[in-house]
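Most newcomers find our protein records easier to grasp once they have seen one. To make this concrete, we reproduce a full record directly below:

…
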Amino acid sequence: MAVQINPSILSADFARLADEAKAVEGADWLHVDVMDNHFVPNLTLGVPVVESLARATDTPLDCHLMIEAPDRWAPQYVEAGAGSVTFHVEAAAAPVRLAREIRAKGARASMALRPATPIEPYEDLLPELDMLLIMTVEPGFGGQAFLDIMLPKIRRTRELIKKHGLELWLQVDGGVAASTIEQCADAGADVFVAGSAVYGASDPAEAVRALRNQAEAATGKASWACDH
């Protein structure tokens, strides 16, 4: 599977989002963190900003909803222009129905797990999804240190994907940088959200290329990819 790098605009300059999107045009997706100050203790942006950003960039938007009641709000982000919408299973009332609604509206459906949420209870839901997001920090703030205790969870998730023969993307988000991306790729991730590591660099586009090169090299040597 192809490595994908998704810069997170949580680490970008919110006053210059269109320019910040252009600065990473070599990226696969632009990761948009939506926080409501309820599900997580931070408040970021909502539907109007996503609509504006979708008009300002050709890079598809990967919206990560760290909000309560995603069953109510997620479809609006598809309508706003998101190509992929991620909801947290801890907040969703009916995750299967929500994933099907997101797909029916024309976007990729993704489900996120906080660090303390195990993957095993949701094995039967995996065929309903296009991507699964393993949080490698507690959601809510950028710039946190990577939780390496999540690596076994990434490995177990990759094993479940392989067990069911699914073409499911496995995304990691939180503390992904030059020092951690190879570990994530080796464990089974193929989609990498990077905020500070991209927008904190002097050349964000070059940072995206460097991270991609690292992840591709690690994936090429990973046992899960060789068996695929």
User: Anything to note?
Assistant: The chain is about 35% helix and 20% strand.
